[in-house]
Amino acid sequence: MSKNILITGGAGFIGSHLVKYMVKSHPDYNIINLDKLTYAGNLENLKELENKTNYTFIKGDICNTELLSDLFARYGIDGVIHLAAESHVDRSIRDPFAFAHTNVLGTLSLLQTALVFWKNDFEGKLFYHVSTDEVYGSLDTGEEPFTERSRYEPHSPYSASKAASDHFVRAYHDTYGLPVVISNCSNNYGSYQFPEKLIPLFINNIKHNKPLPVYGKGENVRDWLFVEDHAAAIDLIFHKGTTGETYNIGGGNEWKNIDLIRKLIEIVDRELGREPGTSDRLITFVTDRAGHDLRYAIDSSRLRNKLGWSHSVDFDEGLTLTVRWYLTNPEWLERVTSGEYQNYYQEMYINRK
Ligand code: NAD
Ligand code: TYD
To answer: Is residue 325 part of a domain?
Structure first.
């Protein structure tokens, strides 16, 4: 059945993988990608979709309710998959207001627009909110992984803003009956990730023989999931998930930062034809992040048991694919690190018209 789906934040890391996945696997759907193109949005991630007839890009802010109403009216939106957010913990420590603005008020603006347009007929409508495992706070070593029933206990301004947005999504379901679904996912890795996050930043630094700033003692643990497995999970939940439900998505793949960094060094050195251990000397322990969560780990058994999801890529394979992608796409990295990528919208969308 044909659907008009609004994906927000589709020019970012996960969003661009999801948009490509959905445009290709659902040619009968009309995918509208709304993205403000902040520093994290990069239309070059979506280059291969430029001639697709079931794909439309709109540059705009999720906080702009007039624009949202116009899009719902113009495209007859019947599904929303909401990813647009400020997403980097270190930035949230420096500028919490930007996170409250986009993550909380932006989500609220979208919820209210969906409610106004859908309230007379919720049939066939769905508001899917993409969230993070960081809302659950931090686990001690040996504690059971987060389930969907874990208490919300966010510590960073980023996770606090995502927690607040999750609460608003549930409030719109419980108060107004808006059909919603939420997923909370662990750390993603893969191609097209902005090189401020651990994995792409460190691949780039190893390549250029630059120091690798390891926060604290590198003992924090993250549960890593290949981004394409996340995109497939979102598609599955969007189509088969139960309205009002929450699904945890995780890799079952916990790594202490320092062990992951040593593994990354090993792969990058090997791929560059360097002697094993060449880049170990780049490891530099630096002051810890304020409020640094010790450990995240996700129990995704609800998603596995009820919807039959499983991840398709194991970590060795996923990390090698990821390293190869960054090493064989130096132009992408260079355009991002130089800031040149931000002219792409101008070049491709404005000058062409
Ligand atoms: P990202 O920072 O790479 O991309 C965010 C996108 O949102 C960018 O394209 C940006 O331009 C856009 N955006 C920001 N503010 C906007 C606004 N006001 N209006 C419209 N667009 C705006 O983020 P990501 O890593 O792809 O994460 C996507 C979503 O998934 C986020 O909601 C994040 O909380 C969640 N998430 C991320 C991870 C992860 O490991 N990266 C894990 C779990 C959940
Ligand atoms: P990050 O990729 O920022 O994701 P998140 O904070 O959302 O988990 O960081 C992953 C882990 O790596 C986290 O424990 C912080 C750590 N880290 C460093 O040690 N050095 C760095 O330069 C960065 C960016 C992260």
So the answer is: no
- What is the tens place of the pLDDT at every residue in 288-334? 999 999 999 999 999 999 999 999 999 999 999 999 999 999 999 99
Report the alpha-carbon distance of residue 58 to residue 42 in Å, rounded.
13
221 lies in some domain: no
Ligand 1 in reach of 156 Cβ (< 6 A): no
| Whether the predicted model's global pTM rises above the 0.70 cut | yes
Residue 88 CA to ligand 1 center (angstroms) comes to 9
Q: How many CB atoms lie within 10 A of CB 80?
A: 25
CA 40 to ligand 1 centroid distance, Å: 8
For ligand 1, the distance from its centroid to the CA atom of residue 122, given in whole angstroms, is 27
Give long-range contacts, CB 8 A cutoff, 24+ apart: 346-349: 348/43, 348/50, 349/43, 349/57, 349/59
How far is it, in rounded angstroms, from Cα 152 to Cα 86?
19
pLDDT at 352: 64
Domain that holds residue 145: 3-187+227-252+292-313+342-352
In CATH, what number is assigned to the domain containing residue 147? 3.40.50.720
Q: Is residue 214 part of a domain?
A: no
Ligand 2 atom with the smallest distance to the CA of 90 is 3
Residue 243 maps to a domain: yes
Q: Give the residue, by CA position, lying nearest to ligand 2 atom 20.
A: 214
Residue with CA at minimum distance from ligand 2 atom 12 = 198
For residue 17, which ligand has an atom nearest its CA?
1
Overall number of domains in the chain: 1
